Amino acid sequence: MSKREPETDATDFVIGRHAALETLKTEGASRVNKVFLQSGLKADALGDVQRYAKQAGIPVQNAPKTKLDLLSDAGNHQGVVLAITPYPYVDIDDLFAVAAAKQQPPFFLILDNIEDPHNLGSIMRTADAVGVHGIIIPKRRAVGLTSTVAKISTGAIEHVPVMRATNLVQTAKELKKRGMWLFGTDMAGTDYRQWNAKGAIAIVIGNEGKGISPLLKKEMDEVITIPMVGHVQSLNASVASALLMYQALAVKQPLGEIG
Questions:
Q1: What is the DSSP letter of 43?
Q2: Residue 2 falls within a domain, yes or no?
Q3: In CATH, what number is assigned to the domain containing residue 61?
Q4: Which domain holds residue 244?
């Protein structure tokens, strides 16, 4: 799969040991410009990071905690910060190529204006776990692939391709032309436990507060609901998407076939 070049030459950062190791162990290592390690930490705690950086020929610099705090915007860097070129995005053909390479029906997520990087990172982590072939996000009014997303995803950002669409409605129409079924979430719809998720599907998750935009909702083939019996009548976007992704996996790969 050929990823497009980043849209900016700015430097981004990967923070935290798990995210840093996953980046250094994958193709993402080619985008790492320098590894910053916190001075004074025990060598064994950062030994794997140093080893993978050395294997990839990436310069390593010891720096005081204050510098790493600055680079990570006071995030929980655990003594490791990677300076990298920004994460690249793919196009729609790349997403279908991932599914074709695995000889599986396409399984995508469409995230309609998700704004919280923690939600996107968590969604990416689950998407990798269940075998989603790609995620589609809008170019505007939504979080992109940032250092916070990378850390929360614990490395999944290196494995789940992401497309940024200029117009989600037009992208939805294109997916339907290619034979995909689109399933959105709403308060009134088919109980997700009775949902037929077989075949080529895309799950559409709406904005944390507003849900799926009206024009995009018109493109849905079916609306899915997650029943709730408590006082709160909505779920966090990452929790809702996780429930739907695992239900889709259960339908696509019944018990005994997963693994």
A1: G
A2: no
A3: 3.30.1330.30
A4: 92-252
pLDDT by residue, tens only, the chain of 259 residues: 544 444 433 468 888 888 888 889 887 888 899 999 999 887 676 888 999 999 999 999 999 999 999 988 888 898 999 998 888 899 999 999 999 999 999 999 999 989 999 999 999 999 999 999 999 999 988 899 987 888 889 889 989 999 999 999 999 999 999 999 999 988 778 899 999 999 999 999 988 778 899 999 999 999 998 888 776 667 788 999 999 999 999 998 876 555 5
Residues 50 and 141 in one domain: no
Q: 234 with 133, same domain?
A: yes
DSSP category for residue 52: H
Task: Give the pTM.
Answer: 0.80
The total number of structural domains in the chain stands at 2
Q: Give percent helix, percent strand, percent coil of the chain, each to the nearest 5.
A: 40, 20, 40
Residue type, 61: Q
